[in-house]
């Protein structure tokens, strides 16, 4: 029975990786909203690009740049290679990374090596352990959370919320009551920060507020506009010829665009906010940081390079960081702290959404005037 479960989890993890690598699983009609955000160009930046300081301290950890590779994988051999490549690169660059849900290793300890390779290759980088909210509701508690953290000597535990993915899977867990209480229990019992993350559909101000009340140390918005888990499940159902109940197509573009989710969350809570979900350039990263994110995260853009190896991951991460540095030069910000003080203009649908929901956009626009 246990073996059967581990094979099932392994099969699903493998399907997810293959689908993400072979199909287009990005949002189709929806966007992150970053295209509606403008930073104000400075013709007189009055700084040296080479002197820009990208380092930042969040969760008591110093990052050489405000960037983490978001949780992706573990549990299968291919995942071990991917985690190893990402870990090697983030260690070299002084960044951070998450691993995928550790459920497979908790159920089946023989698979631990596919996750622990991350700590082995990255002894100093910020590493996030990962468990699913759906598992916490059903069966997991403090014991499993401690195990996940210990397995990686993790710097923090990320709990992922994926009601959209569960809802479009025929076999998904759609019992989602009582999770806040479970999160509160973990926050009290663990001696590392507990961070809650979405997986591509975003966090609302209402939920951010509840999460902060439950004591979480940070919120990763993982909004709409990048990887769509409805799309991944659409392809999985199609490949498994399980199309009777395929909700993935209709919900492909469901969620809160990353920009709206970031502003809603950052304006409502005091804990650090990680901006992720569809960030695809250092310009997106700069916009997110200017909108008060403490860190930025990318998943999908790193997956392909990670299959190729650590050097390819390092190259991609360096490119993103260079783009961020260049954006900071063009807005005259020589540190991450200064970037949070530059004017930001929110236009179009994002401005409509946030104004209708009662969020203040003038404060960003009038900075520096
Ligand atoms: C192949 C793949 C596997 C993922 N697995 C997990 C996971 O196990 N746990 C988790 O919290 N998020 C997982 N995610 C979600 C990412 O961490 C991230 O929130 C999401 O992909 C949005 O970021 P992106 O648009 O940059 O890909 C996964 C993403 C990808 C692409």
Task: Give an overview in words.
This protein is an alpha/beta fold and about 375 residues long. It is about 45% helix and about 10% strand. The strands form 3 sheets. The protein has an 8-stranded parallel β-barrel, surrounded by 7 helices. Strands 1-12 form a two-stranded antiparallel sheet. The structure holds flavin mononucleotide (FMN). Flavin mononucleotide (FMN) binds next to α1, β7 and α13. The site of flavin mononucleotide has 26 residues, from α1, β7 and α13.
Through-space gap between termini: 66 Å
The radius of gyration computed from the alpha-carbon positions, rounded to a whole number of angstroms, is 20 Å
Low-confidence stretches: none
Average pLDDT figure: 96
The helix/strand order is: HEEEEHEHHEHHEHHEHEHHEHEHHHEHH
**Given the C-alpha coordinates, what overall shape results?**
globular
The helix content, as a percent range, equals 40-55%
Q: How many strand elements? A: 12
Strand fraction: 5-15%
Task: Report a brief summary of the structure.
It contains 17 helices and twelve strands. The chain has 369 residues and is α/β, with parallel strands linked by helices. An eight-stranded parallel beta barrel has the order 4-5-6-7-8-9-10-11, surrounded by seven helices.
């Amino acid at each position: 029975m246990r073996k059967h479960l581990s094979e099932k989890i392994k099969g699903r993890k493998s399907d997810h990786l293959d689908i993400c690598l072979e199909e287009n699983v990005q949002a189709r009609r929806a966007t992150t909203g970053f295209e509606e955000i403008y930073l104000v160009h400075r013709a007189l930046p009055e700084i040296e690009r080479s002197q820009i300081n990208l380092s930042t301290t969040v969760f008591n950890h110093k990052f050489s740049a405000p960037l983490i590779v978001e949780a992706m994988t573990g549990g299968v051999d291919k995942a071990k290679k991917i985690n190893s490549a990402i870990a090697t690169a983030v260690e070299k660059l002084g960044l951070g990374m998450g691993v995928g849900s550790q459920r497979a290793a908790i159920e089946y300890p023989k698979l631990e090596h596919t996750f622990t390779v991350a700590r082995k290759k990255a002894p100093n980088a910020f590493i996030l352990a990962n468990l699913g909210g759906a598992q916490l509701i059903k069966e997991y508690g403090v014991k499993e959370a401690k195990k996940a953290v210990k397995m990686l000597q993790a710097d923090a535990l990320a709990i992922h919320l994926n009601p959209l993915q569960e809802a479009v899977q025929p076999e998904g867990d759609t019992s989602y009551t009582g999770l806040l209480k479970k999160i509160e229990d973990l926050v009290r019992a663990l001696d590392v920060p507990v961070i809650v993350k979405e997986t591509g559909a975003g966090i609302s101000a209402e939920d951010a507020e509840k999460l902060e009340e439950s004591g979480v140390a940070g919120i990763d918005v993982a909004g709409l506009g990048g990887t769509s888990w409805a799309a991944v499940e659409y392809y999985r159902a199609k490949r498994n010829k399980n199309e009777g109940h395929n909700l993935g197509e209709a919900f492909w573009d469901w969620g809160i665009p990353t920009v709206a989710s970031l502003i809603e969350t950052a304006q409502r809570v005091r804990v650090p906010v990680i901006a992720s979900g569809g960030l695809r350039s250092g310009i997106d990263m700069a916009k997110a940081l200017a909108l008060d994110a403490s860190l930025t995260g990318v998943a999908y853009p790193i997956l392909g390079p990670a299959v190729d190896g650590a050097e390819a991951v390092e190259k991609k991460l360096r490119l993103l960081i260079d783009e961020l540095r260049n954006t900071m030069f063009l807005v005259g910000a020589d540190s991450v702290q200064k970037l949070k003080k530059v004017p930001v203009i929110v236009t179009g649908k994002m401005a409509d959404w946030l104004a209708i929901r009662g969020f203040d956009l003038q404060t960003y626009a009038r900075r520096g005037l």
